[in-house]
Each structure stands twice: as structure tokens, then as C-alpha cells.
């Protein structure tokens, strides 16, 4: 085989592997989103938060972040609004209060990571949209 042909074969193999990885990632994230929507049937926003903070979808590392993010977003998009849960949250327009409240929620869970704060931010925005 000529050197040019070997290089072309290697490049083609790399591109095929990359495309297959992207397809798998899209499928995986879409599956997580659908799983979140199914989980939310008949449940409210608080159930979604509880699932990602106490349930089977706890994630404290970046390795599981995207699957859980898509699960959580799917769950929040399909969950029912919970006025009692949402009224206990500060307004998203009061940034200092919002940041203090998010940190307080994570401390109650014994966590001090960005993922935890992100969970509560998404809950705040879902309540605001509700």
C-alpha cells in the first residue's frame, strides 16, 4: 500500500469513529431527556429536584453531568408546576438572594459543588417559567 493510501485510510477511520461517537452521544442524551419526561408523568417540579439530589440520578462528578442534565431538563419540562415549592424560592431577578439560597440548599445536602448549584438554578428558572 502506498503511503498516501495508508494516510487516507487512517483519516477515514478517524472520521467514521468520530461520527459514530457523536451519533451515540446524541442518542444517549436524547434517551436521558426522554427518561426524565417519563419520570415526570404525574409529578411536579419538586419530584425532579428530589430525584437528582436524593434519588437514582445523583451526580457529583463531571462524568455523569450531561446524562443527568438532560434527564433533569426533560423532567422539569414535563413536570407540573408546584406553587408551594416554587413560592419558597427567591426571585431569579434578585441575584444576591438567589446565590445565597442556592448555596444554602446545597449545604443542607452536604454538597458544595457547581452541579448542585446548577440543579437549584434550573429549579428556580422552571418555577419562574411556571
Q: Give the fraction of residues assigned to helices.
A: over 70%
Q: Mean pLDDT score, rounded?
A: 86
Helix-strand string: HHHHHH
Biggest sheet overview: none
Query: Are there runs of 5+ residues with pLDDT below 50, and where?
Result: none
For the CA atoms, what is the radius of gyration? 20 Å
Approximately how much beta-strand content do the residues carry?
A: under 5%
Choose one word for the global shape. Answer: elongated
**Terminus-to-terminus distance:** 63 Å
Protein structure class = mainly alpha
The total count of helices amounts to: 6
Total strand segments: 0
List the SSEs and their pairings.
Elements (H helix, E strand, L loop, with lengths): L2 H37 L5 H9 L11 H14 L4 H5 L7 H14 L5 H16 L1
Overview in brief:
This protein has 130 residues and is mainly α. It has helices at residues 3-39, 45-53, 65-78, 83-87, 95-108, 114-129.
Please provide a written account of the structure:
By secondary structure, this protein is mostly helical. 73% of the residues lie in helices and 0% in strands. The chain is built from six helices and no strands. The chain has helices at residues 3-39, 45-53, 65-78, 83-87, 95-108, 114-129. Helix 1 packs parallel to helix 3 and helix 2 runs antiparallel to helix 3 (65-78). The protein is elongated. The N and C termini lie far apart (63 Å). The mean pLDDT is 86.
Amino acid at each position: 500500500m502506498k503511503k498516501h493510501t495508508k494516510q487516507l485510510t487512517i483519516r477515514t477511520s478517524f472520521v467514521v469513529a468520530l461520527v459514530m461517537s457523536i451519533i451515540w452521544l446524541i442518542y444517549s442524551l436524547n434517551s436521558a431527556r426522554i427518561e426524565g419526561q417519563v419520570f415526570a408523568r404525574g409529578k411536579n417540579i419538586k419530584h425532579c429536584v428530589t430525584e437528582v439530589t436524593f434519588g437514582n440520578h445523583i451526580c457529583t462528578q463531571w462524568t455523569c453531568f450531561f446524562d443527568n442534565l438532560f434527564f433533569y431538563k426533560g423532567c422539569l419540562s414535563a413536570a407540573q408546576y408546584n406553587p408551594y415549592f416554587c413560592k419558597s424560592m427567591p426571585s431569579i431577578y434578585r441575584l444576591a438572594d438567589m446565590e445565597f439560597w442556592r448555596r444554602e440548599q446545597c449545604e443542607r445536602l452536604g454538597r458544595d459543588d457547581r452541579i448542585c448549584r446548577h440543579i437549584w438554578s434550573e429549579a428556580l428558572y422552571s418555577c419562574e417559567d411556571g
